Structure formats: C-alpha cells, structure tokens
Amino acid sequence: MDGSSQEEEEDRTFTNISLADDTDHSSRILYPRPKSLLPKMMNADMDAVDAENQVELEEKTRLINQVLELQHTLEDLSARVDAVKEENLKLKSENQVLGQYIENLMSASSVFQTTDTKSKRK
C-alpha cells in the first residue's frame, strides 16, 4: 500500500484541498465533506416522515404509560378485593360465634323460655 492510498483511507470523511501544486501533504487544509445533496423536496418529505414518526413514538409512549398505569390500578384493585374477601370471611366467622353465643344466652335465660299460658291461668 503506498502513502497516498493510506491517507485517502484515513481521511475518508474529509475532502483534501491542496494549497500548493507540489505533493507535499503538510500544506493541505481538511474541510468536512458536504452531506448528501438531496433535493429540497426530499428533505421536506423526510422532515414530514420524521415528524410523523415522532408523533407515532409519542403516541406509543403515551399508550404504554397508560397501559402501565392501568396495570398498577388493576393490581391495586385486585389486592383490595382480596383484602375485602378476607375481612368478609373474618366477619362471617365472628357473626357465627356471636350468633351461637346469643342462642346460648337466650336458652339459659328464663325470660326467653317458652311458658305454658294455659297452666298459669288455672
């Protein structure tokens, strides 16, 4: 590989402009190559596509955030339902105990005993 093709390889992104007619490369000034020279209409089309892509990306991001928020809400509601079910079972059990206790008190009390009204009248 000779020296000039190696320099071309290294300076691939720059355009060499020689200030002298000699082959001394120390006097060169490097300028960036101009970007692709696309017609203005294509640039406008690309800007429109980029804008559409940006809008789509923002919409997707908004939807993803909304889905995540709904998932968290669903998890919270599910946890709340489970807690309410547990509380309900606990209260049912307590009601059964209290109901049995009240029945026992009523059966032990003479106030709630059935009386024979015919035997008292005689």
Could you please describe the fold and organization of this structure?
The chain has helices at residues 3-10, 40-108, 117-121; strands at residues 14-17, 29-32. It is mainly alpha-helical and 122 residues long. The radius of gyration is 45 Å and the shape is rod-shaped. The chain starts with a helix and ends with a helix. Positive regulator of amino acid starvation-induced autophagy. Residues 60-94 form a coiled coil.
What is the fold's blueprint, element by element?
Layout: H1 3-10, E1 14-17, E2 29-32, H2 40-108, H3 117-121
Question: What is the structure about, briefly put?
Answer:
This protein is mostly helical.
User: Biggest sheet: strands, sense, closure?
Assistant: 2 strands, antiparallel
- First-to-last CA distance: 138 Å
Stretches where pLDDT is under 50 for at least 5 consecutive residues are 7-11
Average pLDDT level = 75
Order of helices and strands: HEEHH
Strand content: 5-15%
Helix content: 55-70%
What characteristic shape results from the CA principal axes? Answer: rod-shaped
Number of strands: 2
| Rg calculated over all Cα atoms | 45 Å
Going across the biggest sheet, name each strand in turn. 1-2
Count up the helices.
3
Structural class comes to mainly alpha
GO cellular component, one term: Golgi membrane
Subunit structure: Homodimer. Interacts with ARL1, ARL2 and ARL3. Directly interacts with FEZ1 and UVRAG. The interaction with UVRAG is reduced by amino acid starvation, but the complex is stabilized in the presence of FEZ1. Interacts with NRBF2.
Keywords: Coiled coil, Cytoplasm, Golgi apparatus, Membrane
Pfam family, one: DUF2205
